[in-house]
TrEMBL record:
Molecular function in Gene Ontology: beta-glucosidase activity
SUPFAM superfamilies linked to this entry: (Trans)glycosidases (SSF51445)
Name used for this protein in its record: 6-phospho-beta-glucosidase
Keywords: Glycosidase, Hydrolase
InterPro entries recorded: GH, GH_1_N_CS, Glyco_hydro_1, Glyco_hydro_1_AS
GO terms for biological process, alphabetical: carbohydrate catabolic process
Organism (species): Lacticaseibacillus camelliae DSM 22697 = JCM 13995
């Protein structure tokens, strides 16, 4: 018998800004992703003191402008997802397609119609849409005019946006998430909060104020969602990097615990439990401010309390190790969340430490902590694929990575964890979020485009395509 429940949500995940293209088509406004240059230095460039979000095509390439042109290829792409047997497809709505400037009074009907078509195309194949309301693509105007999420006004703008899309799609879409990888702002606040050095990212208080505003905005979306459809499921979405103490030294154990609180658990604790955790003040004091310094109203706290999320969505790519007692250890260069190199693990071409067992631990930790269902909404291996003369990629490395992680989920199910589903990241090749590269590929489907935007844009099935199809068809038995 398969370890996976009958209704397990097998699928794949993408984000609007990384694949749609048509960045200014049909009334869409600019998003922050549209103003980030392509290439591995995109975060570094965005954090230069004089960065002002202006687009300079004489200097940089902006790969998110064209993505893989899903905007015009969604029918063929969703057909391929259906061929793999997807039960669900996680995608995001581009906020700037619906409210081009973020503060507009009326939504852009052409943008709403696009997602009508995407949703209907999924439903045609019995694929359940899973929508992320905000995935690293806030309207740029909300950053240049309002200073990003540290400004409270964004709570109302997000609420208006969430209300519009929930009203429009809730009858057809049961699964939702409020903010992608909300906790990632601790390490890179540019994508989730619109904060860079030039507008306040160098002050930790701003990041926590931005989080507070996002928590309240998210809770308001939860309220709207539940009022529209009682069986609707709306989750938070965390970047979870299982965090180990490097060794049994109690100092390292304590440091790992503190790191877990600050990164893996803080946002989830507020969004799932509806209250700030007891360790809030100690985390904030570490950064030189107090909870009292934040702009938090009694009404905000009541909203958080009354509207916790229904499940915990999370991405899992890597684990990390903490050592505060031996300064000579090599740091885990490339790992998005830092830490030291773990001698038991190998890393991807981009330095992310690969650890399937860490996923089983993550699932257990989240389930034990919150007693709610968990959903692995991102996981995968960013790798350089080399197609043969027929454009075929024999991506056994990707199959091996995914197989080991699916086995880890199987283990967690046997441990008693309520796992809702699994949507590997970038089920079709798309633009990387952290490096703006096409060559960092995750897909089951190869897209013929390179980092310079050259190529036919045609789609080709990789070896992993047939493999994943068989995994889904056997409900995880044939791995
Ligand atoms: C997550 C994001 O961080 O990981 C995605 O939610 C992102 O948007 C994915 O694409 C993989 O990261 P990257 O930087 O390799 O694209």
């Amino acid at each position: 018998m398969s370890a996976f429940p009958k209704n397990f949500l097998w699928g794949g995940a993408t984000a609007a800004n990384q694949l749609e293209g048509a960045y200014n088509g049909d009334g869409k406004g600019l998003s922050i992703a549209d103003a980030l240059p392509g290439g591995p230095d995109r975060f570094k460039i965005a954090n230069q003191p004089d960065f002002d979000w202006s687009i300079d095509e004489t200097k940089y390439r902006y790969p998110n402008h064209s993505g893989i042109d899903f905007y015009h290829h969604y029918q063929g792409d969703i057909k391929l997802f259906a061929e793999m047997g997807f039960k669900c497809y996680r995608f995001s709505v581009a906020w700037s397609r619906i409210f081009p400037n973020g503060d507009d009074t009326r939504p852009n009907e052409a943008g709403l119609k696009f997602y009508d078509r995407v949703i209907d195309e999924c439903l045609k194949y019995n694929i359940k849409p899973v929508i992320t309301i905000s995935h690293y693509e806030m309207p740029l105007n909300l950053v240049t005019k309002y200073g990003g999420w540290k400004n409270r006004q964004l709570i109302d703008f997000y609420e208006t946006y969430a209300r519009v899309i929930l009203n429009r799609y809730a009858a057809r879409v049961k699964y939702w998430m409020t903010f992608n990888e909300i906790n990632s702002a601790l390490h890179f606040p540019v994508m989730g909060q619109g904060l860079v050095k030039s507008n306040g990212a160098d002050k930790m208080q701003n990041i926590y104020q931005a989080w507070h505003n996002q928590f309240v905005a998210g809770a308001r979306a939860v309220k709207i969602a539940h009022s529209l459809r009682p069986d609707l499921q709306i989750g938070c979405m965390l970047l979870y990097a299982t965090t180990y103490a490097y060794d049994a030294n109690p100092e390292n154990q304590l440091a790992a615990l503190k790191e877990n609180q600050a990164f893996n658990h803080f946002c989830g604790d507020v969004q799932v439990r509806g209250t700030y955790p007891a360790y809030t003040e100690s985390v904030m004091n570490r950064y030189g401010f107090s909870f009292k310094d934040l702009d938090v109203t009694a009404e905000d706290l009541a909203t958080l309390k009354a509207n916790p999320v229904d499940y915990i969505g999370f991405s899992y790519y890597m684990s990390t190790a903490v050592n505060v007692t031996d300064k000579s250890l090599e740091t885990a260069n490339g790992n998005l969340v830092g830490g030291v190199r773990n001698p038991f693990l190998k890393a991807s071409d981009w330095g992310w430490q690969i650890d399937p067992t860490g996923l089983r631990i993550a699932l257990n930790e989240l389930s034990d902590r919150y007693q709610k269902p968990v959903f692995v909404v991102e996981n995968g291996l960013g790798a350089k694929d080399v197609p043969d003369a027929n454009h075929f990629v024999q991506d056994d490395y990707r199959i091996n990575y995914l197989r080991a992680h699916i086995q880890a989920i199987q283990g967690a199910l046997a441990d008693g964890v309520d796992v809702m589903g699994y949507t590997p990241w970038g089920c079709i090749d798309l633009v990387s979020a952290s490096t703006g590269q096409m060559s960092k590929r995750y897909g089951f489907i190869y897209v013929d485009l390179d980092d310079q935007g050259n190529g036919s844009g045609k789609r080709y099935k990789k070896a992993s395509f047939g493999w994943y199809k068989q995994v889904i068809a056997s409900n995880g038995e044939r791995l």
